[in-house]
Amino acid sequence: MKRQLSKANFSLISKELEHYESSQLITGEQKSKILEIYELKEGLNFIRVVVTIGAILVGLGILSFISSNWAGMSHLVKLLIIFGVFGGVNVAAYLLSENYPKTGRSLIYLGTLVYGAGIFLIGQMYNFGGEFPTAFLLWSLGVVPMAFQLKDKYLMLFANILFGVYLNGSYDLGFPYAGWVGVPIVYLAFNYFERSKLLLFFANLTTLSFILQITIRYEMKGLYVTLIFFLIGLLMYGIKHTLGPDIFRVQGNILFGVTGVILTFPDIWDVLVGVQSIRLVSILFALAFIALLFALIRKGSLISLIFVCATIFRYYTDTFAFLPKSLFFIVGGLLLLGFGYYFERMMKTSKGGTLA
Amino acid sequence: MTKKRTFLLAVLIPLLILLAMTIKPQTTVLFGQQILLETKAFDPTDLFRGDYVAVRFVISDIAKSKVSLPMDKVSNKNLYVSLKQEGQYYVVDQVSETKPQQGVYLKGKFQDTYNPNGEVDKYSVDYNLDKYFLEQGSGKDLEQKSRSGGVIVTVKVLGGYGVLTGITTR
Question: What ipTM is given for this predicted complex?
Fold first, then answer.
């Protein structure tokens, strides 16, 4: 299989190879042989974009028509229209898939939106109460078979997002048991759809939402929930594996960064230690957290730099006792300046080490 | 399986889900017993289903004295509320853990309601019947009328499951 490159990278490589050829490092034959191992990645196709947006607009129009609950047409007629349009666009999509694959696919997308409109129409017909998160579960359930059948990662992404809406909206509805099935499916899909990074990103978000729902259901204290997610973030960042490691690292880094900043607030610790020592514990945590972030910045993690800034800002806005704050910041800043100077000098003398 | 068949399956599954969604409520509308309930109403909007009248029944508040079960068997539990007719409307008769053998009853989720002294003196019951969907714009009128009088809702009930089928003002 040829290596896929974006247009910009491909033109960079061919430009550089031409330079090598002209400086007689490689022959013309070698140049074309090297170029042959690459192929251009399919970028955004204009026709695909136009027909997809067209399908989405029609679909949203139908969803909005259902919401309007126009009394000029009975519910049954509307339901029959939904069934007819859903069947019609799918048949048309099937017939068009051979000669007009892009238009055909956009009709499939339209079909999934019409199906969603059908769910909400039924909810409206029978005046289902509550927040109706089940609608999103059923919507997702109906999209998954088509996503797998067509191996369409965007449909799968849509199903995954709908499932996420269900998970996060089912607070009043008891435990979202569907999560036990849904979470494995989103990873199965990631594996099936050529390990698409996009799908992995959302699969991880779905899993994290499900874990959050579990902690909420068990009425876990805020501190423990935050600590669990802090730990999960560290594990996502640190564990070495081949399952899209860069996605895991970015998400892990953001996760333990956000939860770490939350854990620097003293009040959250009061379930674990006495009120008199919450400030001390939170400051000790903050120091360890900052040390960890600096260690990661040294390894080249730019996201950690953002969280160092967030932590500093969080302390800057924490209190209006300006004099102690001034002392704290000046001492902290001087320490960092000193460390930086020390490291720079050390590197200069040993001529070793990299500071990414 | 051929590609054609799996495609057909992928089209049929959503259709079957839609049909399956209608079975329970449609059976209730067709064969359920019709009851009238008193409510209060207001008129918000749902992004996907449009305007609705949010209703809260008189039978959604049940005094603690009416429930013979201990508190830990009531809070956050799904229980059966038997209803009896008093005049035109149906009111709460009794609350039970098991499905009543006869009569009209609704299944609902019980929540504690605290009075200003911090004690639980009644339960709030969610029957999942809190929305009546209307054509956009037509709910305001009903909301205004509900302030002066109160709104009456028709519910079809079958086996503890209810479907809102109509709404009128007194």
Answer: 0.76
